[in-house]
Amino acid sequence: MTFIEKLSCAWEKNNSLVCVGLDPDTERFPSSLRDVPDAIFQFNKAIIDATHDLVCAYKPQIAYFSAESAEDQLEKTIQYIQTEYPDIPVILDSKRGDIGSTAKKYAVEAFERYKADAVTINPYLGFDSAEPFLNYKDKGTVLLCRTSNRGANDLQDLDVGGMPLYQKVASMITEQWNFNKNCMLVVGATWPSQMSEVREIVGDMPFLVPGVGAQGGDIEALVKAGQTANGTGLIISSSRGVIYASEGDNFASAARSVVVDLREKINLHRN
Ligand SMILES: O=c1ccn([C@@H]2O[C@H](COP(=O)(O)O)[C@@H](O)[C@H]2O)c(=O)[nH]1
Question: Which of 74, 84, 129, 182 is positioned for an S-S bond with 65, CB 3.0–4.6 A?
Fold first, then answer.
């Protein structure tokens, strides 16, 4: 099964466009987890067990693991999802981007070491830096297009021959890079009008949409701007707003309540 097929099944099975971001910051863990040797994995496991029937994907952010020398717990987290909840795809958020020879190793890291179903990459080094990822036909490659942060417009809005750079990126990926039909784009929830422009350019290509919850993206505006005709096309990711809904021992049940609420708010505006 390809990544896109797996994603489509998860959208349908859980009637959900919600992706839970796993950004495990040990300083925000409940005190009961502080001295536990595999605390990061245990934290993630509790969040996953509490939300697996409500989501279309999980998105672990690699920085939160590598900063703690806890790559083993990233491997364990992905393996846990794929064993216990094999219908839910895992998007590794590592935003790699480098020259072709190095990019090949990053693709091996994402797809063979971590066995992620999809990975985020930075397209700004050009096609040869993305090609090693795109050649994994059954895996998904999520390319930065219009990011959610405040500084997104510093470079991504620069005029390149009559259009902003992010639109050029969107059209180049659609027309030239998507030969295996495994490309997706990162488009931030914080920029709904740019999102609808990108939707016009790329047809039904899925968007990974960070920026709801802690970054304040407007759910109604983003769903209306980014959904496809059949009410899908979006992987709407929230990390801190979900996983730190409570910093006490009830963190997993609090996360579940936030995801229930988020799914409902999103579904209210789907076609
Ligand atoms: O444009 C982007 C691309 C990636 N991210 C990542 O998503 C999450 C957002 O976390 P929240 O707590 O939901 O704000 C985080 O892992 C970022 O690295 C993004 O925010 N924007």
Answer: 74
**Total structural domains within the chain:** 1
Please state whether the predicted TM-score (pTM) of the whole model is above 0.90. Answer: yes
Binding site membership of 148 for ligand 1 (Cβ less than 6 Å): yes
Q: Which atom, in ligand 1's list, is nearest to the CA of 61?
A: 16
Task: Name, in order, each residue with C-beta under 8 angstroms of 48's C-beta and a sequence gap of 6 or more.
Answer: 20, 22, 58, 77, 80, 81, 84, 85
Q: How far is CA 84 from CA 75, 119, 155, in A?
A: 14, 21, 41
Listed residue (252, 269, 197) closest to 17, CA to CA:
269
Query: Which residue range(s) make up the domain with 107?
Result: 3-267
240 Cβ closer than 6 Å to some ligand 1 atom:
yes
User: For the chain, what is the mean pLDDT?
Assistant: 98
What pLDDT, on a 0 to 100 scale, did the predictor assign at position 182? Answer: 98
CATH of the domain at 190: 3.20.20.70
What was the ipTM of the complex prediction? 0.99
